[in-house]
């Protein structure tokens, strides 16, 4: 089944297949949790199944048995599918038993060696996520991309294509999955959350809070974090409309980095709504962006990004958040955007 927000990307892939123009190397991009793996699975099933992804034939059953995203309890280089000509490559446990943060060169070499064998049926190799390859691994893949074998398809998934070398990008055809705010996606979200949640939350607002990423919206509802996040978000909106609320921020204590990320998402969503001249589900955010200069929102977004980066240093994160909140509390009536000094004695100049 094609997910609603995959329709455009899948139609692009379907057109390549129908016109016999499917490349030997395909790069599927999109933000984390947008469903790149699910789209790749749908493509593989479409290529192998003779009956429109029936779910019942030997190919469909073989792929359904695969669970390549499950963390194994032992080290391995690549994983083989129940379909003999499908190979998966991802970050795995290393020899010391720790989960590697990158895809290693020995993994990619094993991946390329497996695809280097002649096969009568279509060979498919899937790397997720290609932006996790170290430089040696990427260089090792390059030769296989430059000299593809017949009847072979390599699929790369990447959260951030800019993290890939230009030499890799130039040898792949890219299909991108965009965030979604469509009615079909809202309907899908409503159908994939429980009844109690449907009564408590508006699906449109949930999708906006998740930056147009339905899987993230569903995941955010698990546990208590989402309710804490909503409390932060509500107070941030109140602060922008009523600056005196900036003194009532006890719920932010100990969560400064998460609050900065929450504000970053609010400002990003505000810029999006202001750019497309559309009102969102959050009435308070609509009021804020109506009164705020677009240039000030972009400058604030830059400052929040810098603040998040600085949080990895010895800077006083609480003081940094306080300065950001002072700007946010004045955002609707600023004549001139202030300068936040990036120093240990963080000062704010209007």
Task: Provide a descriptive summary of the structure in words.
The protein is α/β, with parallel strands linked by helices. It folds into two domains: 4-176, P-loop containing nucleotide triphosphate hydrolases (Rossmann fold, 3-Layer(aba) Sandwich); 223-349. It has 15 helices and eight strands. The protein has helices at 7-18, 36-48, 58-65, 105-115, 135-146, 166-169, 183-191, 195-200, 203-209, 214-220, 225-241, 256-276, 283-291, 294-310, 317-329; strands at residues 25-29, 79-80, 86-89, 123-128, 152-158, 173-176, 339-340, 348-349. The strands form two sheets. Strands 2-3-4-5-1-6 form a six-stranded mixed β-sheet, sandwiched between helices. Helix 5 (135-146) links the parallel strand 4 (123-128) and strand 5 (152-158). Helix 11 packs parallel to helix 13 and helix 12 (256-276) crosses helix 13 (283-291). The longest helix is centred in the last third of the chain and has 21 residues, at 256-276. It is elongated. It starts with 6 loop residues before the first helix and ends with a strand. The mean pLDDT is 90.
Q: How would you summarize the topology of this molecule?
A:
Layout: H1 7-18, E1 25-29, H2 36-48, H3 58-65, E2 79-80, E3 86-89, H4 105-115, E4 123-128, H5 135-146, E5 152-158, H6 166-169, E6 173-176, H7 183-191, H8 195-200, H9 203-209, H10 214-220, H11 225-241, H12 256-276, H13 283-291, H14 294-310, H15 317-329, E7 339-340, E8 348-349
Parallel strand pairs: 1-5, 1-6, 3-4, 4-5
Antiparallel strand pairs: 2-3, 7-8
């Amino acid at each position: 089944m094609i997910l609603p927000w995959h329709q455009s990307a899948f139609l692009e892939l379907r057109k390549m297949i129908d016109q016999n123009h499917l490349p030997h190397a395909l790069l599927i991009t999109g933000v984390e949790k947008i469903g790149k793996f699910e789209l790749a699975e749908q493509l593989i099933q479409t290529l192998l199944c003779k009956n429109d992804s029936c779910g019942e034939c030997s190919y469909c059953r073989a792929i359904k048995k695969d669970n390549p995203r499950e963390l194994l309890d032992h080290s391995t280089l690549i994983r083989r599918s129940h379909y003999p000509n499908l190979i998966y490559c991802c970050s795995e446990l290393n020899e010391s038993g720790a989960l590697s943060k990158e895809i290693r060169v020995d993994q990619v070499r094993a991946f390329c060696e497996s695809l280097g064998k002649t096969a009568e049926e279509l060979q498919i190799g899937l790397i997720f996520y290609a932006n996790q390859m170290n430089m040696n691994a990427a260089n090792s893949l390059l030769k296989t991309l430059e000299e593809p074998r017949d009847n072979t398809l390599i699929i790369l998934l990447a959260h951030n294509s800019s993290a890939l070398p230009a030499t890799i990008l130039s040898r792949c055809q890219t299909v991108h999955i965009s965030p979604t705010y469509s009615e079909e996606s809202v309907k899908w979200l409503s159908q994939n959350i429980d009844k109690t949640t449907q009564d408590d939350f508006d699906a449109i607002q949930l999708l906006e809070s998740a930056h147009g990423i339905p899987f993230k919206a569903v995941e955010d509802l698990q546990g208590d974090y989402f309710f804490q996040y909503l409390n932060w978000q509500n107070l941030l909106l109140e602060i922008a409309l009523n600056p005196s609320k900036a003194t009532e921020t006890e719920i932010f204590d100990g969560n400064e980095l998460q609050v900065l990320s929450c504000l970053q998402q609010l400002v990003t969503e505000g810029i999006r709504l202001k750019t497309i001249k559309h009102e969102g589900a959050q009435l308070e955010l609509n009021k804020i962006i109506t009164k705020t200069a677009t240039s000030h929102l972009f400058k604030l977004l830059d400052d929040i990004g810098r603040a998040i980066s600085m949080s990895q240093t010895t800077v006083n994160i609480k003081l940094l958040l306080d300065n950001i909140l002072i700007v946010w509390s004045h955002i609707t009536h600023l004549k001139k955007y202030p300068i936040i000094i990036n120093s240990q004695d963080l000062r704010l100049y209007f």
